[in-house]
Amino acid sequence: MNYRHAYHAGNGADVLKHVVLLALLDHLNRKDAPYCFIDTHAGRGIYPLGAAETQRAGEFRSGIAKILDGQDAPPAIARYLEVIRGIGVEDNVLVRYPGSPTLALAVMRDQDRAVLAELQHAESTALKSSVYRDRRAQVHERDGHEALLALIPPKEKRGLVLVDPPYEQPDEFERLEQTLSTALTRWPTGIYAVWYPIKHGEAANRFLNRMATTGIRRQLVIELTHERDDLPGGLNGSGLLIINPPYQLEETLAGSLPWLHFRLSQPGRGRHRISWSVPE
Ligand SMILES: C[S@@+](CC[C@H](N)C(=O)[O-])C[C@H]1O[C@@H](n2cnc3c(N)ncnc32)[C@H](O)[C@@H]1O
Question: Contact 124/141 with Cβ under 8 angstroms?
């Protein structure tokens, strides 16, 4: 496995994923009862923007760096930027970008718990050292699909699973479909947020169509692209499939996608949507 998230930290796809992640956690925070956050592909937790690979790829420059001023930001974006600045800004400069475990722990309460799975030894070692002081967090160096199925339902009964694989394996979408189908039978009331890339080809649409025929209800699709969907080459955008989204998530995110599209995409290119692929 060659994937290193440091090359991509803070890019447009991370921005979308992390805005939605915080919106979902804030919905869970509305009730006092504890919840469990499960991050199946957690990464290393924090990404110094001065690191050689992050600088070389420079993807954060077309992502977080373009929106950090937050001018006219709708509430869900303003919330995300407040958390990003609290963790990453020193002397008015963004010096590090937080990954999903760090962002989640920043907004979770004392009574909540984070289960973080990361397969690569170097990444999970870095993650352990970044969260070791936090008694709410447990790091598992293991396959995220296996960890998820072994650990649900959590004792808290309510919570969120973030599934954010690197999509390096050709069968990643098929594996996701199997894992999600099994997970939903073991923990039908969990919230599941699955990130996916939108690239040339129909892989993402095929995945959504197959998921829509599984019998799983309440599937919400959130997508933001910066280019034409069918442009050959790299990443044209990304999406999140949210199963069992909290009530009023769409209202919470209202305005965020047009704002991100305007700020992150080339004029006249790309698109955004929030729509149900399987309704209530
Ligand atoms: C896209 S990155 C995760 C980024 C992170 N969720 C965030 O938002 O900051 C994907 C991570 O999955 C890890 N990974 C790859 N295959 C895995 C597997 N089978 N199980 C768990 N982690 C895996 C990679 O090492 C990489 O760190």
Answer: yes
pLDDT tens profile 86-116: 999 999 999 999 999 999 999 999 999 999 9
Spatial neighbors of 9 by CB under 8 A, at least 6 apart, are 47, 49, 54, 59, 60, 97, 99
> Angle between the 100-107 and 75-88 helix axes, to the nearest 10 degrees?
100
Nearest to 241 by CA among 183, 200, 169, 170: 183
Q: What is the per-residue pLDDT across 158-184, written as a single tens digit (0 to 9) for each? A: 999 999 999 999 999 999 999 999 999
**Residue 266, pLDDT score:** 82
What is the topology classification, in CATH, of domain 5-278? Answer: Rossmann fold (3.40.50)
Dihedral in degrees, nearest 10, Cα atoms 104, 47, 243, 263: 110
Question: Partners of 137 in the beta sheet?
Answer: 114
Pocket test for ligand 1, best of 49, 100, 105, 119 (most atoms within 8 A of CB): 119
Q: Is 39 a catalytic residue?
A: no
Ligand 1 centroid to residue 149 C-alpha, Å: 16
Q: What is the pTM of this model?
A: 0.97
How is residue 250 written in tokens?
A: 């769409």
